Amino acid sequence: MTPTTNDPHTLGAQLAGNPALNAAIDAIVGEVRAASSEITDVRGPVEGLAEGYRRAMERATEARGRGLLYPYIGSGLGNGALVELADGSVKWDMICGIGVQFFGHSDEQLLRAALHASTEDVLKHGNLQSNAGAFEFAEMLVREAKKTSRMAHAFVSTSGVMANENALKICYQKHAPASRVIAFQHCFMGRTTTMSQIGDNAAARVGLPLNVDADYMPFYDEVAAERMGGTKYIDMALMHLEQYIGRYPNQHSCFIFELVQGEGGFNTSTRDYFVALMEMCRAHGIAVWDDEIQTFGRTDRMFAYEHLDLGEYIDVVSVGKMTQACATLFTEQYNPKPGLLSGTFTGAGVEFAVGMSIVERLVSGGYYGEDGKIAGHHAEFRRQVRALAARHPELFPANGEIADIVGGQGGMMRFTPFGGEKDKIIRACNVLFDEGVITFYCGHGPYHVRMLPPLGVMKMEDWPRVFEIVERGLLKAASGA
Ligand SMILES: Cc1ncc(COP(=O)(O)O)c(C=O)c1O
Predict the structure, then answer these.
(1) I want to staple 87 with a disulfide (CB 3.0 to 4.6 A). Which of 45, 147, 221, 263 is the partner?
(2) Is the CB of 297 inside a 6 Å radius of any atom of ligand 1?
């Protein structure tokens, strides 16, 4: 597809190439760079801003009808992994809006892409009328996905949960009238009424009528697998799946795979476990849907299915978060009939431009592979946790349910102080926030401290600085101070 911006014959293309416009964008980028470069380290709130910040927080609470999880309102400026809040404080952002800002804060290249796209005639594009960005974004995702899977097309949408809704509709339609779904224990899929029902979290569906029939499979459990022996563990899971299939013959439309569980606790699995389940799905005509909304871009390959070499099994993939705009990818066989997918918005031109810039950087930035930047950061993260635990074993009491105090995959990082007790982990996250490192928790018990750091811009030398604060914060949380 020829981008409109390269077409010399349109006025729009001429505007995009206009030297005065480009000089103005350079000037803006330069100003932001100068301001951003003043942010160099963590600091507390600036004197005189505390009262205004408290009032802003109250207004946010009033507008939302409930308080914020963290007292976080950004100032609009940051520098890499550091972000400034509206009270003037600066913190290490190790959670990035739950995985959205992989290239951190005030990134020059993404700002430039956003500025260019913001000169387009409209902000939001739709399924009826759109500039080229939406299609180029979809095309780029398919180009990358195709390298190791059968993905043929992508339908763009506005949020992760909408990408999942579209994935489910595609699976339902292909296998109609099959109406059941199979999902993993501890899965998370988003917050529509349907996805809240499938997500394995009772609190997320309080008061919702239940009209989706979901059957749950155990996610791979390293401790149990070790106890039983790997092959027996897989046989047990296959027996479990066969029972569902036998109990409801031809009624399952899809099995939803989160290859590294996000909200569920950054749980990982062996390839063999997934292969066994996916082969059984294939044998019974059940779609294999891979929800990569949290994993995309973050494992040792761009797609988690590539990392696990599972591309041949996948029928549908949903992506989001780091991609800015979201999408559902599917094979030729799963291309739905006209009329199934649509909606007013596909997204904002700025989202497509920034999303494409991100994917291009992921492709060419040396992030993937055994020696890639992501693997390097993950190894350093583990080293920092182990060193911390060696210095303070009292912070990491043994708990038979926890295979390891440090875990996750690539840019999905977790560690488990305080035996994974919910209250203590939440308290630890709050103390770390106050001290200057923003994390969040994950898991349903044991609970873990979770990091989704901006590995796109993080430097190796940032880790000891982050962990110096983590150490201080955990000691403070432990002491109850
Ligand atoms: C695996 C997974 N699926 C779906 C979603 C929903 O995405 P969104 O919050 O953008 O709707 C999330 C969000 O955390 C997720 O982690």
Answers:
(1) 45
(2) no
Per-residue pLDDT of the chain (481 residues; tens, 9 = 90+): 545 555 568 999 999 999 999 999 999 999 999 999 999 999 999 999 999 999 999 999 999 999 999 999 999 999 999 999 999 999 999 999 999 999 999 999 999 999 999 999 999 999 999 999 999 999 999 999 999 999 999 999 999 999 999 999 999 999 999 999 999 999 999 999 999 999 999 999 999 999 999 999 999 999 899 999 989 999 999 999 999 999 999 999 999 999 999 999 999 999 999 999 999 999 999 999 999 999 999 999 999 999 999 999 999 999 999 999 999 999 999 999 999 999 999 999 999 999 999 999 999 999 999 999 999 999 999 999 999 999 999 999 998 888 899 999 999 999 999 999 999 999 999 999 999 999 999 999 999 999 999 999 999 999 999 999 999 999 999 998 6
Closest approach atom of ligand 1 to CA 190: 6
110 and 358 Cβ atoms separated by less than 8 Å: yes
**Shortest-distance Cα residue to atom 5 of ligand 1:** 190
pTM above 0.90, yes or no: yes
* Separation of CA 259 and ligand 1 centre (Å): 13
Whether the CB of 159 sits within 6 Å of ligand 1? yes
Mutate to test the pocket of ligand 1, among 159, 188, 322 (most ligand atoms within 8 A of CB): 188
Q: How far is the CA of 291 from the centre of ligand 1 (A)?
A: 9
Q: What strands, in cross-sheet order, belong to the sheet with 213-217?
A: 151-157, 326-331, 316-319, 287-292, 252-257, 180-184, 213-217
Contacts 24+ apart (CB under 8 A), 38-41: 38/79, 39/77, 39/78, 39/79, 39/82, 39/84, 39/90, 40/79, 40/82, 41/82, 41/90, 41/465
Looking at ligand 1, which residue's alpha carbon is closest to its atom 8?
Answer: 160
Q: 3-state DSSP call for residue 434?
A: helix
CA separation for the pair 367, 375 (Å, rounded)? 8
